Amino acid sequence: MLGMIGATMLLALREIRRHLLRSFLTTLGIIIGVAAVITMVTLGRGLTADVQEDIAGLGSDVFIIFPTRADPNIAPPPFDDEDIRAVEMQIPGVEGAAGSVQTSATAFHNGQDWATTVQGGDREFFAAQSIDIVEGRGFSDTEEARGESVCILGPKVVEEIFQPDQILGEEMRMGNVSCRVIGVIDERSNAVGGGNDADDVVFMPLKTVQRRFIGNTDVQFFVVKYDPAYSSATIQQQLIDLLRERRVIQEGEDNNFNIIDTAEINDTVNQVTGVMTLVVTVIAAISLLVGGIGIMNIMLVSVTERTREIGIRLAIGALAREVRLQFLTEAVVLCCFGGLIGIGLAFGLSVLLANAIDLPFIFDPTVNLLSFVFSAVMGIIFGYYPAHRASRLDPIDALRHE
Amino acid sequence: MSEAPLIELEGITKTFGEGAAAFQALKGVDLTIERGDFVAIMGPSGSGKSTTMNILGCLDVPTSGRFRFRGVEVQDLTRDQRSLLRRRYLGFVFQGFNLLARTSALENVELPLLYRGESKKARRAAAERSLDLVGLLPWADHTPAELSGGQQQRVAIARALVTDPDVLLADEPTGNLDTERSLEIMELLTDLNKTGITILMVTHEEEMAEYARTIVHFRDGLVERIERGLKADAPSAKAAGEHA
Hints:
The structure holds two protein chains of two kinds.
Chain A: H1 2-18, H2 20-57, E1 62-67, E2 79-80, H3 81-90, E3 94-109, E4 112-120, H4 123-128, E5 133-136, H5 141-146, E6 150-153, H6 155-161, E7 171-174, E8 177-185, E9 202-204, H7 206-214, E10 218-219, E11 221-226, H8 232-246, E12 257-261, H9 262-305, H10 307-315, H11 320-356, H12 365-391, H13 395-400
Parallel strand pairs in A: 4-9, 6-8
Antiparallel strand pairs in A: 1-11, 1-12, 2-10, 3-4, 3-7, 3-11, 5-8, 6-9, 7-8
Helix pairs in contact in A: 1-11, 2-9, 2-11, 2-12, 3-8, 9-11, 9-12, 11-12
Chain B: E1 7-16, E2 23-33, E3 38-42, H1 49-56, E4 64-69, E5 72-73, H2 79-89, E6 90-93, H3 105-114, H4 120-133, H5 149-161, E7 167-171, H6 179-194, E8 198-202, H7 206-209, E9 214-219, E10 222-227, H8 237-243
């Protein structure tokens, strides 16, 4: 039996070698199908990872709360420190809350200038937003309490107006305010807050920015970090109730603030990519089906074309099942080659496309393996009928076939 | 077993089609062929010689009658059992050579061995020996398109011989060849017969039939007459039997 499979394998490979172009064209459907599936899934994975990284930039298990207009004609009241303290004190499960403000300002250093954003945020804000400091240090209690002129730079600002080895301790100016550089934050992907490049920012203590740049003690938005052991929905409802009460919103009136739940965004993204993957899979399945029918078609043509050959084989003593196995092997080998070429093509395409649209390339061995196995199965399914037909031929008729 | 004739046909009939369109190709053929014989089957077209050949080659089964090959009742065998019989004991040479196109002579000759599950080395050695026997070893790498008709038929004979068959069935083996090549092929078949292989050949050419030791004449689906013992210099049936 093993020898028989080896021999039919050899025959199949010889046959494919003899019809190289036709074999290639036959498997094109499978090649394209497999390449499409793997490319789409790989890019989908990359997209998901990319979005998830963005969301991670917002911090995990975090709500972001900011005022919005309930009535288009009335500006919503801002939040202030009192609101943040109330949230921290009154809602169980809240680990901390921190406000932030930001405004545009020009950074000056060493005779160079760069238009950027100045953002106020204390250590608690850094923690809630998962902002890491890669050089220097964060703000101290004193600096935060006194509203001192110290700043932590985003990597984009460093790149524009600083020398790589002369950053910490340098004096610079933000607008009219001079400050001393005490740290640099890690590169982040785009985070919330203006939608600008999250790396193009200069952080100063909240109080400093409120006093020296804005001129009041309001916060533009605040983040609430909660213990993931608590239900995010319950906390969100409690937040809504508390803030409605504090902002004196009557029953039936709309909220004049908005709560962004990063967990919810995460779910939504997962849902969207899940649907996308499903759609792609269905399209891919259809294209593979078409590819499989192509295989069947060519195998039927091949059986007709090689009727005489089948006659010779039967005459010299091939068993029906050996002829069937030979044609089935041919179909499966063809499909496997198609699958392999498709995988290779998908690899190249994925790397290229991921590069072009700036997504991470994430190799997924499962999808690749599954696609390959699936191609082989297509070979068996669509190769069986032609192979069966070949095996049922009458040797005398087959030998007479012109 | 050694006493039984190699081939016995008894009251073989063969009908094609059904009802009004039915055509009886064989109407009761009786024929005995001994081991080591060289038989030419002759007759006008439609006389039933090809149908008989197909039955003798275990490619077809009779509608009625008995066909014993080496004592085995062939008409009772399944399709696959007949395949195994062909694989083990029979070699075929066709009028149209029937070689696989775009396939080297060596690979063509190896083909029957593939179905025996022999190792690559053994296949190659046997195929080369067989090609050598027909004088075509130097052409082993040539495809049929690169060979003359006579050479192609020699490759076909090498393919039929590679399994060491008891019987070589040749259906108009010289039908597509000119006289000179035909005679070469007949010489080759005669030489093979001298080594003990039983040869059954269908032909309509008297000149080719002259090489045979037995000539069976067919007419209208029946054996008309049999001429035996035509070549006195041929080895005895007994000696050939011992060889096989």
